[in-house]
Amino acid sequence: MSGRRYAQDSICLKDVLRGLGEIFSEDKVDVDEVKSLLRAYKSNPKDWRKYCTWDPARYTRNLLDSGNGKYNVIILCWSEGQGSAIHAHANSHCFVKVMDGQILESMYAWPEDDNEEAPMRMLKKTSVNVDEVSYINDSIGLHRMENPSHTEPTVTLHVYIPAYGECMCFDERSGHRSVCQVVFHSAQDGTIDYGNGKSSAAEGGFDRMND
Q1: How far is Cα 138 from Cα 151, in angstroms, rounded to an integer?
Q2: Which residues are bridge partners to 161 per DSSP?
């Protein structure tokens, strides 16, 4: 661990993006340090509202930083009742911080037999609230995320390292898997000034490639 310390209420979203770049410049991902940085940032809509896009039909993915192809930082916007498919993370680390509203995370075990149809086994459900951080990788399991509210939208900040362009999605009733492509509704590539330079590189949800 690098020993960096982050004072809550004293950093903004640009500091988070800059800090992630510093953390991920090292060869090994320090999960606890990334969590510490994300928790230290107190969500401020003035920082992120301008990056949000909304779609009444599906949640949206809005790229803030592509980390020179090494990692992705994304704002996800969930209208009332919208949710993702059950999915894996292509051997990436996945960090999620709730910026506004609430997200419901349903975690599932991997199907035990790829050749046999069977309902997915749910491990647990967790409600994640504003400024709380969740973490998952493929060794922990699969998950589905959704906005449980029928009256309020939700905004979440997601960090994926390494970045990935497609992942496996799963049918809850049969366990059948398919390849889904990650799609961005908007991208801020190279347009966010961190104070010491600009961001690196640049959908929502998943587009199913095959069944």
Answers
A1: 32
A2: 93
Copy the structure tokens of residue 68: 């020179």
Distance CA 99, CA 76 (A): 10
Polymer length of the chain:
211
Q: Please give the model's pTM, rounded to 2 decimal places.
A: 0.88
155 backbone dihedrals φ, ψ, rounded to 5°: -125, 130
User: For the segment 136-188, what is each residue's pLDDT rounded down to a tens digit?
Assistant: 999 999 999 999 999 999 999 999 999 999 999 999 999 999 999 999 999 98
- Residue 27 CA to residue 151 CA, distance in Å, equals 43
Distance from the first to the final alpha carbon of the chain: 42
Q: Could you give the angle at the alpha carbon of 161 between the alpha carbons of 160 and 166, nearest 5°? A: 65
Residue type at position 145: M
Which tens digits make up the pLDDT trace of 50-80?
999 999 999 999 999 999 899 999 999 999 9
Say how many C-beta atoms besides its own lie within 10 A of residue 121's C-beta: 13
